[in-house]
Amino acid sequence: MKTLQPAILPAPFGRYSHGVASERLLVTSGQLALAGDGTIPEGVTAQAELCFANIRAILAEAGADFSHVLRFNAFVTERAHMADYMAVRDRLVADLPVKPASTLMIVSGFTRPEFLVEVEATALLP
Which sequence ranges form a coiled-coil region, renumbered to this chain (predicted)? Predict the structure, then answer.
């Protein structure tokens, strides 16, 4: 197994990896909208875009991209955030011939109240 820790991402909050890859499978930890400089963008759309950018960086470190994603799991803090999150996800997978499976859950919150969305991915490596 290989740890995936892209330099553009901030260090994990604890003793875990941003991503782990085996010979064929890659899984990411849930990615919150935390930029490399420690800032958190406002709004669900901006946060979802950053979550997916972080996932893109983890995938790239293993030689993969969104076309290799089998499943996205996402979490938002309010039902009102679902449409904005889904619009970002749908735009990013629009051109893929096979769309990833996807689950979206509503949760009561994250480690900091500013976080509105978290996304994780499972991918099959090329």
Answer: none
Query: E strands within the chain?
Result: 2-4, 19-21, 25-28, 31-32, 69-76, 101-106, 117-124
The domain locations on the chain are 2-124
Judge whether 116 and 108 are in contact, CB under 8 Å: no
> Each residue of 22-67: pLDDT tens digit?
999 999 999 999 998 889 999 999 999 999 999 999 999 999 999 9
Residues sharing a CB contact under 8 Å with residue 52, sequence separation 6 or more, in sequence order: 31, 88, 89, 92, 119
The correct answer on CATH 3.30.1330.40 for the domain covering 2-124 is yes
- Verdict on whether the full-model pTM lies above 0.90: yes
The DSSP output letter for 81 is G
Phi-psi region at 83: left, alpha or beta (left = phi > 0; alpha = psi -120 to 50)? alpha
